[in-house]
Amino acid sequence: MNKIENALKLLSASNETDYRIAANTGITAASIGNYRNGKTKPTKANAMILINYFTNTGFKEKAQDITTNHNTPSESTEFAMSLIEENGSLRQQLGEQINENKHLQEKNMVCNEKIIKLKSEIEELKKQLNFREAKYQTNNNQLSDVAEPKVTYKKQRSK
Questions:
Q1: Mean pLDDT of 111-123
Q2: Distance between CA 25 and CA 9 in Å, rounded?
Q3: Where are the domains positioned within the chain?
Q4: What burial class does residue 129 get, using C-beta atoms within 10 Å of its C-beta: 0-12 exposed, 13-18 middle, 19+ buried?
């Protein structure tokens, strides 16, 4: 199911008024009404807003359920405990993600240090290469002088 279809499904399943959804999402009530009656479909951006709204309001609805739908104290307590358990699970997931991020940051730092070291080594090798090329050129010039000596003759003066 794509995002637009998912948003429409969530919208049609909701008991909230178009006005309330509009007030909480920033999408006009007329658009919400058009989505519900099938005149138009939401854009991908509006579909994401609706999906986020309905998935995040699930927590609000659960909190309202504690006071409205659970008549006995034991039902309310049981429901509250399930929320606490879900909260703990989400906190654990968040902690794992934070630890993974720290691990990745450390690996990134090590990689950056290696890159800096390699760049420095490359620069040193370039300097050595330039020095050797200059030395080679000097030696080559000296060899050509030996192989082809420059002979200069002095003219003798005639008497």
A1: 95
A2: 17
A3: 1-69, 71-145
A4: exposed
